[in-house]
Amino acid sequence: MSGRLLAPEPAGPLVRRERPTLSVVIPYYRRADVIAEAVRSALHQTLPPYEVVICDDGSPDDLDGALGPMRDRVTVVRRRNGGAAAALNTAASVATGEFVVQLDSDDVFLPRRLEAISDAVVVRPDLDVVATDALIEEDGEVLWRFRDAVPFAVDDQRRAVLRHCFFAWPAMRRSRLLAVGGFDERYRATSDWAGFIRLVLDGALVGMVDEPLYRWRLGAGSISADGAYNAEEEIRLLRQVGDDYALDPVERRTIDEAVDGMRRRATLLRAKEAVADGGDARRRSLAVAFGPGFSPRTRAKAAVAVAAPGLARRTLAGRFAAGTAQRRFGIGLEAS
Prior knowledge:
Elements: E1 5-6, E2 22-28, H1 35-43, E3 51-57, H2 63-67, E4 75-79, H3 84-94, E5 99-102, E6 108-109, H4 113-123, E7 129-138, E8 141-145, H5 146-149, H6 157-163, E9 171-173, H7 174-179, H8 191-201, E10 206-218, H9 227-244, H10 249-277, H11 281-289, H12 296-307, H13 309-316, H14 324-329
Parallel strand pairs: 2-3, 2-5, 3-4, 7-10
Antiparallel strand pairs: 1-10, 5-9, 6-10, 7-8, 7-9
Helix pairs in contact: 6-8, 6-10, 9-10, 10-11, 10-13, 11-12, 12-13
């Protein structure tokens, strides 16, 4: 394994095991323009997948035609439209590999990804979830590595997963994923994180190969593009987790702190959106200028937007439109 494996210390001695079977699962809806590249990246791995399962989530376009000659090399299951979480759960239930490996239909694997995941499971058979680092791209430009946006948590993974989604697009032991109920179909943008919370709170151990072997390609049509909506849904998710699980006082405080940060992020993003599109900029900016938790610099910028929204709009133009990944993670938002 070329990338360093980050993982909690094992509870006891470990014995190397045989390679696991890895099923790649892809949720599909209206991605005929990019699905072939995603599937090709899964099939052309240095360690081929056990199978590739695509769930067509009631898409009206021609998936079979978009796959072309690769159609005979994948399993396609179809269902009525229910969202990405429902499609992933359907694909996972149909798959037969020991692990299912998540791939979004507009993203791609780098060639060594499955081999790196398999190597990690061989040396750490106690891990139920194995991710790799990823490249975050927008319009073909690499913006960050995923771990630079969200550091991987080696220790205290229960608290870490309540603060943020510290891994993504992993391989998951299929039996364990199904046992916790899979991905949460109540959420649109945060169903992945909700599923990972279920796994970690159920005791699953997570490891990450510290090598960027996944390309997350952001775009205007991506669910991840609306950072303010995501932050608001994240708040609903964490509040629901607090209701559903027996958490200790420290974990509940972690949720409260995370929710406070998300609320500030949503407020700031809604204000920036209002300035950029000529919406209710003054009211939104006042919420930042006089709201709790914002830096003096951010308050000053919000005050400018209150007094002169046109000037603020010209300053923000272009920079805001290019910042999808920044909006998704809240990185440097107060400095922008």
